[in-house]
Amino acid sequence: MNINVNQTIAYLLYLIAIGVAGYVTKEWKAHNSKLLELKTKEEERAEKLLGQQNYNAAKQIVVDSVYKVEQLAKEAVNEQWNSLDKHSKAIEFISQGLNKAGLTLSDEDIYSIIKTTVGYINAGKVVAPASINTLVQK
């Protein structure tokens, strides 16, 4: 009878140890999955932030190019630049600037930013990156 009690106690201790190990494993896996989920969210947020920074940098290149073309048109007293000349020169400067920086913008975004910037120039206002961002936003 002593052997049966010892075997029963050993069997119960074995079951308790397996139960505790199973619980610890379950909690560890849950913790790891939460960490992986958090890491994925952080990466997505970083990609989104980087995308917004790239968009802002590209937008600033477009705004600077439009100002550059407007200044060149003012300095060219003998030549009369029409809006088509200005637009083609602005597109040339924009494509050079975006290629140099390794950035891209859709044609629609470029057109919208150019129109907004020209509107600010015609109104006599200075285009700040924050003020144009509220008008041209995707």
Could you name the key traits of this structure?
single chain, about 140 residues, mainly alpha, 4 helices, about 85% helix, about 0% strand, rod-shaped, disordered C terminus
Helix amount, in percent?
A: over 70%
Distance between the termini: 81 Å
Q: Which spans have pLDDT < 50 for at least 5 consecutive residues?
A: 129-138
Order of helices and strands: HHHH
Mean pLDDT level: 82
Report the principal-axis shape.
Answer: rod-shaped
Counting helices, strands and paired strands, the structural category is: mainly alpha
The Rg value, from CA coordinates, equals 32 Å
Q: How much of the polypeptide forms β-strand, as a percent range?
A: under 5%
> Main β-sheet: number of strands, strand sense, barrel status?
none
Q: How many beta strands in the DSSP annotation?
A: 0
**Total count of helical runs of at least 4 residues:** 4
In short:
The chain has 138 residues and is an all-alpha fold.
Describe the model.
This protein is mostly helical and 138 residues long. 85% of the residues lie in helices and 0% in strands. The chain has four helices and no strands. The chain has helices at residues 2-75, 83-101, 107-123, 129-135.
Q: Topology of this protein?
A:
Elements: H1 2-75, H2 83-101, H3 107-123, H4 129-135
